[in-house]
Amino acid sequence: MPENNRRIRVGIDVGGTFTHAVAIDTATFTLAAEVKVPTTHRAKEGVACGIIASLHQLMEAGKIEPDEIILIAHSTTQATNALLEGDVAPVGIIGMGKGIEKSKARSETNVGDIELAPGRFLKTYHRFIDTGEPLNPDIIMKTVAELHDEGARVFVASEAFSVENPANEDMVVKTCLDNNLLVTNTYEISQLYGLRTRTRTAVINASMLPKMMETANMTEQSVREAGIKAPLMIMRSDGGIMDINEMRRRPILTMLSGPAAGVAAALMYARITDGIFLEVGGTSTDISAIKNGKSLVKTATVGGHRLYIRTLDVRTVAIAGGSVPRIKNKKIVDVGPRSAHIANLGYSSFSKLPPDAKPILTYIQPIKDDPVDYVKLEADGNAFTVTPTCASKLLGIANKDNCAEGDLDSIKIAFNAIAENLGTTPENAAEQLLDKSFPKAANPVEDLIDEYQLDRNLLTLSGGGGGAMAIVPYTAKKMGLPFEIAPNAPVISAIGAALAMVRDMIERSVVDPKNEDILRIRKDAEEAVLKMGAVPDTIEVQVEIDPQKNLLRAVATGSTEFRTRDLAKSAISAAEREAIVRKSVREEIKNITCLGDVSGLFIYEAHTVHKKMMGLFKSEKKQYRIIDREGVIRLQIAQGDALIKTKSNLEGALSMFIERHTDYGDAGRSVPGFFILFRGRILDLSGLMTASHIISLANAELSRLTDEDPVAVLVNII
Fold it and tell me: In Å, what is the CA distance from 564 to each residue of 6, 28, 559?
């Protein structure tokens, strides 16, 4: 590669209406180019057609050479759409078991037809093989032929306890692949016990294989024909990316791939540490939470059935930049769920009305069975409406240089017509519109805060998407929370795809996990992302224990390259760092101190006064902020303690530090969340349950440090 060539990461977001593509120069993290094309749902090649078209237009727009591209990653709506529309292949299940568990295995592998969406079902067929006798390819192919004759087109191998001994499932897979048949085994989809749920998850995965393989093959072929040798990655539903070969094996991991790209951008581009991210489009808004610099995930369900797959916890609501108001009895009674796009109306913001226009207000029914009270305005042959985008501009909420900017004169003309109908002022009409919009966004935000016990004093509402200015500032104002709009908000999801980290997760059923169990799952997770191209020194692994479910989980993330941005050029001064820290602390500060620097991570301790009952009761506490050289807050602790040592002095001190902050109660020992800082990284140990687990994992992570390397330990006291 020529020395002066750029290093470009390409991100492509496949949306419902448009496919956006961006090229990011990794030296500066700036956009080298951006384009959008209509999403090609109905093309013969499917969404792959739009992906390839956007890639070629992007390369032309940015004058990008094939050898400048170091990574291509795209989100996809295909898995989600396949489930919603029932566009899946019928699945033949080969259940297996032996001995006293045989009868139970027969029942639990026969999952029946699975409802994917109201009125749409995934058809399954079932056969059972007694593995008390040795399995062989002839028995397998006889069973496959029977299932195929019934209608099965893809197959699943499912045996009781295959997570301990996968030999029979592997034999079924090999036999099917040798005969050019698409197949999935359960233990490679999940290593958790629970045969019915594991089988159901594998069945849904298998049903997607034909469609997803077709798209993957076409996309990869076109990329290689363009002379691009860079890795081709796909967004996962948990906010990471995986290589295309992994997608061919586990397409189910791409469910909710679209919203995941936006959250990846919130983490990697907007650099949110604690907040609620609202990605606002024209019709709907995706809302998700970020805590300690990580997205919050949950167990996925399809048709009300739990799966062994983790996805982002995304709340999608029908309010956005283009939502249309409803008026009844001279009051705005609702806003949405229909948008101007669905109602085939323009926004007043972009209608360019003449100064003397006198819009006529009428009411429409956008879709059959909708109320007939959605607002439509007509003037000079234009049909348009007012939206949250228009209201935000009228009230001076929308800043310049964003999608909510619009034409103020046209907005005033439109709101004059609305105000005349309501018997009020244009400004009051705009307030009414936003007041009716506000709860639809605020309620799921409050739900996330309550469910995950998020500290409001640490939270920021962060907006992305073209409609962010229309919804986020007003919602934040009414909730009493600060907000920020991500840079390049309209293409935030494409940016997220470009910058996302390689990710994989392993879950195992383990009762009372020992130190060796924790180290083993950490190693396996690390190896999984290494296989997908992650650079070893960029890999971070978080291990969590769920004692109620006897579950051990490891999440590994890593980059396909070392970060090449010149941090020295973007470093800020000590005074600027302290100002950022002070602004983030939302309580009275008695004093603030920088305790030290751990390889570019600066530790600030703030002694604050916490007030309760309108200030009648006061208490003091220590808050901590970890901020990097660029001024990004990487960790916030509302109440805690800190220990700063060199590696050689840490071991005994760490044990004492953990013991000092361990609570003893009726339920036994309770260990709070600990974080370790070293070599510019933050190791999150908050998911571990005992001092032994924490020390064991810390020793493994710190093993490559020299004795004189600085290390800091922080504890989050809830």
Answer: 11, 9, 11
